[in-house]
Amino acid sequence: MEQEVQSKAYCLNEGNKTGSVKIADDVVAMIASLATSEVEGVSAMVGNITNELMGKVGMKKLTKGVKVVVEENKKVVIDLSIMLQYGYNIPQTCAKVQEKVKAAIENMTGLEVSHVNVRIAGINITEEQ
Questions:
Q1: Which of 2-11, 13-22, 114-123 has the lowest mean pLDDT?
Q2: How far apart are CA 20 and CA 13, in angstroms?
Q3: Where are the domains of the chain?
Q4: What CATH number should be reported for the domain whose range is 24-124?
Q5: Rg of the chain over CA atoms, in angstroms?
Q6: Most buried residue, 45, 55, 60, 119, by CB count within 10 Å?
Q7: What is the pLDDT of residue 7?
Q8: pTM of the predicted structure, to 2 decimals
Q9: What does residue 93 show for φ and ψ, rounded to 5 degrees?
């Protein structure tokens, strides 16, 4: 039995003549996840235990390793948990992730990103290294 997980939606232009535009937080999380995965040195996104358990019991798959919070002033805070590839400079790689995620969300949604917090959950060491 699959249960639907409720997600929040944020209204982008409520007073428009032709209708309103709402964007689900899962969409913002997916944009952040895709932008993060495009940065060289990022090995993978890392989900928390809740995301892993919900995926195993058949509930709607949540975006792994991304938390989206929209503050009262409509500014977005993104929390990412990532694995890095061994050998990459951590501060430089994280700065690239922050820049790429901020730009992607702002360009695609029109929402303003106030913070992109990155947590390094581990380092991926391939056998070659």
A1: 2-11
A2: 6
A3: 24-124
A4: 3.30.70.1350
A5: 16
A6: 45
A7: 55
A8: 0.78
A9: -65, -45
